[in-house]
Amino acid sequence: MKKAAQVYGSVARQISNPRELEANLLLDAASRLQAVKDTWAGRNDNLDIALHYNRRLWTFFLSSVASAENPLAADIRQNVANLGLFVCRHTMQILADPRPESLGSLININRELAAGLLGRAA
User: Fold this and answer.
1) pTM for this one?
2) Are 107 and 33 in contact, with CB atoms under 8 Å apart?
3) pLDDT (tens digit, 9 = 90+) per residue, 77-121?
4) H-type alpha helices, the chain
């Protein structure tokens, strides 16, 4: 599987709007998690791959909002950081105790944030 930064870079070349790019990556991660939830087979490679992809994406977002060059307002950066930390902690909880219903919050966060980035209600 490609690293999140590589995926980000390849999609960025196809989409000129950074908000749209981020929204599409979040929706892709949500779709992967939803597919695992819909075909739940317990802890398996598909779960691990989907969680790893989502965590890498959020790690990239965390790195971005921590950068001094980030143009977002401080309160927005803090909110994204808080969400990112929750995603990372929740991912570790899912890995420790895999249950399909645990994926719902990660899926919803990604979809809601993507909808906000695209300027529409989820």
Assistant:
1) 0.83
2) yes
3) 999 999 999 999 999 999 999 999 999 999 999 999 999 999 975
4) 4-12, 18-38, 45-66, 74-96, 103-118
CB 102 within 8 Å of CB 91? no
Helical pair 4-12 and 18-38, crossing angle rounded to 10 deg: 130
Provide the 10 A C-beta neighbour count for residue 56: 19
Q: How far apart are CA 30 and CA 13, in angstroms?
A: 22
Q: Crossing angle, helix 74-96 and helix 103-118, to 10 degrees?
A: 150
pLDDT value at 20 more than 80? yes
